[in-house]
Write a structure and sequence with these properties.
The protein is α/β, with parallel strands linked by helices. The protein contains 15 helices and 18 strands. The structure holds adenosine-5'-diphosphate.
Length: about 425
């Protein structure tokens, strides 16, 4: 059993993000959707396993119960350390769930102290003097202050976390982090002796996060965003050399898009502009009983097998608003997820072996429809957007699950190049 790090991510795309971070650190990494009840769900010989939950905005009691179940499962697979991955903008409410979940994981592990750092320098998230910055702005001055679910109006992490735990919270400043892992370990010990349970550390760069990862190597529970996960991954020696498998090139290729995020709409426009076969799903017609799936499959069957196809529900803000006004937001989402999930199953049955899915909720619908509970994480095509590998009842499948705003505008055509056949 080689599993070293078990990770619990508080949302689906956060799971992909942190799994890609462990993979960058050279660890063979599995990503599991929801806590499996089945002992065989983990691909063999993994150094790291990430369980992706939907616990960011659920009631704290539910988030705690789900996270504890994930921790027990990860321990049962041999994990000696559990990393709790939350958002790099500390996305949470005054009640949680970051504090309650971390406390529960620590209690279960018998841990007396933990290290936190939400910094993610490549995304402009840094922590200085305990204040979280988004690029050149304090979190509380950034657009996150207007977040629809959890508006972040404070940037002081010690204060934010103190509101979510009855335990003491303290800071290790950047000057200490710059002195290296031993200095950080000493500082953690000093805080621990003073009764502190949650230690937040400053970090401005990936080097700082590598220092924190080395300092946190022996802690049973560590918490933060993907940056500290990568630092921790570098501190854990991998069982073997990092795999360098090439991106998948074999088999029919398709994109299924349900995201209406600006970046996904750009990626769709670029696919159309490249003259590749594309089809828009009529959500209102489907809700009215038309066989939109059957029509899309008949269309798919006429396409050149060497060229990737795109099928999307994704729509402009105006069209989206019109559909939602007519069906209601929940019914519109259920229609879209039903259509794309069903199409995914049929496409794989028809021989699609490279499937790119755009949208967080959409990715959940597609993996559920395909019965995919776990994937092995491969190389990233764009930051936070790795190829992953799964087995389905119809054979092996390369899956790219991308959050709406991720990836460059030409991601679809770059990830799924048209196959060139030798003449004759
Ligand atoms: P993102 O990662 O960009 O947030 P998601 O897949 O999580 O993407 O969410 C996109 C949402 O938009 C889904 O709930 C989906 O059902 C909805 N949606 C997509 N296309 C349409 C459409 N044509 N009409 C109505 N709702 C749509």
């Amino acid at each position: 059993m080689t599993l070293r790090i078990g990770c619990i991510a508080d949302d689906f795309t956060g799971g992909t993000d942190v799994a890609a971070a462990f993979r960058r650190a050279g660890l063979r990494t599995a990503l599991v959707f929801g806590t499996p009840d089945d002992a065989s769900a983990l691909p063999a010989d993994c150094d790291a396993a990430v369980v992706a939950l939907k616990s960011r905005s659920t009631p704290a009691g539910e988030a705690v119960a789900d996270s504890l179940a994930a921790q027990r499962w990860l321990w049962s697979k041999g994990a000696t350390q559990v990393y709790f991955k939350y958002c790099s903008t500390f996305d949470s409410t005054a009640q949680g769930n970051i504090g309650p979940v971390t406390d529960a994981l620590m209690d279960a592990a018998g841990a007396v102290v933990t290290l936190h750092c939400p910094a993610s320098p490549p995304n402009g998230r840094t922590v200085y003097q305990g204040h979280l910055f988004v690029h050149d702005q304090l979190l509380s001055d950034s657009p996150l202050r207007h977040h629809p679910l959890n508006p972040m109006t404070d940037s002081a992490l010690v204060r934010l976390l103190s509101a979510q735990t009855r335990h003491q919270v303290a800071l290790i400043d950047w000057a200490t982090v710059r002195r290296g892992a031993e200095a950080v370990r000493d500082a953690v010990l000093v805080h621990q002796r003073a009764g502190v349970r949650h230690v937040i550390a400053d970090a401005l760069t990936d080097d700082d996060l590598a220092v924190l990862g080395a300092a946190a190597l022996e802690l049973p529970v560590v918490a933060g965003a993907a940056g500290l996960a990568e630092g921790l991954g570098h501190a854990h020696p991998a069982a073997g050399p990092a795999a360098t498998e090439p991106p998948p090139r074999e088999g029919r290729a398709a994109v299924l898009a349900g995201s209406c995020s600006a970046r996904t709409l750009e990626q769709i426009a670029q696919f159309y502009a490249a003259g590749l076969p594309s089809r828009h799903l009529d959500v209102l017609a489907a809700a009215g009983g038309r066989d939109v799936t059957g029509e899309a499959l008949a269309w798919y069957d006429q396409q050149d097998p060497d060229r990737p196809v795109l099928i999307h529900a994704s729509a402009s803000p105006e069209e989206l608003a019109a559909v939602q006004a007519q069906l209601g937001v929940a019914e519109a989402a259920a229609q879209v997820e039903g259509l794309l999930g069903t199409l995914a199953s049929h496409l794989v049955e028809r021989g699609v072996r490279r499937l790119l899915v755009a949208g967080g909720e959409t990715s959940g619908a597609v993996t559920t429809a395909l019965g995919v509970r776990a994937v092995l994480v491969g190389e990233e095509t764009d930051p936070g957007v790795p190829w992953t590998y799964a087995s389905t009842e119809h054979g092996d499948l390369a899956l790219m699950l991308k959050s709406g705003n991720f990836g460059a505008p030409d991601l679809f055509t770059r990830a799924l190049p048209t196959t060139t056949r030798e003449a004759g």
